[in-house]
Amino acid sequence: MNELTIIEKVLGVIQGSLPVTDRTIDNSCGQVDSEAMTLMEDTVDEQAVKRLSRDFAKALTERDFEHLDGRAEYHLYTVDHLIELIKNNDEQNTIKLFNENKIKSKYEDCEFLSITFTSDQEQAAVVYNVRTCLVSAEEKYFKELNKKNSKKNRISGGTPFSTTYTLTVKKEKGTWKIDKFEASEENIRIGKN
């Protein structure tokens, strides 16, 4: 892939990005929900980082191979990280993985374990557990997932499980963006629906 193609794709993603809306107050009922109460106790930067992290988890885990956007989370990344993803054909690899394995998954919730800011408040490390439900997938995918999971907890269709995500986020032109991301190999089984 040549540099011009990469730049065109990055610009396309940036132009297609939507601003993150402030969801701390649900105006439809005039009441503040419990998530909003927690957010209101946090600093402005903590609120923004939690919102970014939650939006990222939703974009990664709320996927259906029949209606898949292989770059649903791209607007949440720093430009540098986005360039690396495009160079590595991330969108095509994601689509291939979901289509070959007929994966349907849904986001359930997340629990923040820690958020550590640098002294200049321009970067932060976020560690949180993301609860996902694999609604359905090919049997071979479940076998591979459980193999990586060291068979400590069997994951099957409809089984919610938790994965620990570690994010490095930084401000890019005043907006928090994800610069690096890791997910734990081991999944913690939560239970059957």
Q: Please report the number of helical segments.
A: 6
- The protein's oligomeric status is single chain
Gyration radius, to the nearest Å? 18 Å
Category by helix and strand content? alpha+beta
Morphology: globular
Main beta sheet strand tally, sense and closure? 6 strands, antiparallel
Order of helices and strands: HHHEHHEEHEEE
Approximately how much beta-strand content do the residues carry? 25-35%
Mean pLDDT: 83
Number of strands: 6
* Helicity, as a percent range: 25-40%
Low-confidence stretches: 18-34
Head-to-tail CA distance between termini: 44 Å
Q: What do you see in this structure?
A:
- With 193 residues, the protein is α+β, with helices and mostly antiparallel strands.
- It contains 6 helices and 6 strands.
- Strands 1, 2, 3, 4, 5 and 6 form a 6-stranded antiparallel sheet that branches.
- Helix 1 crosses helix 4 (79-87).
- The longest helix is centred in the N-terminal third of the chain and has 18 residues, at 44-61.
- The chain is globular, with a radius of gyration of 18 Å.
- The model is unreliable at 18-34 (pLDDT under 50).
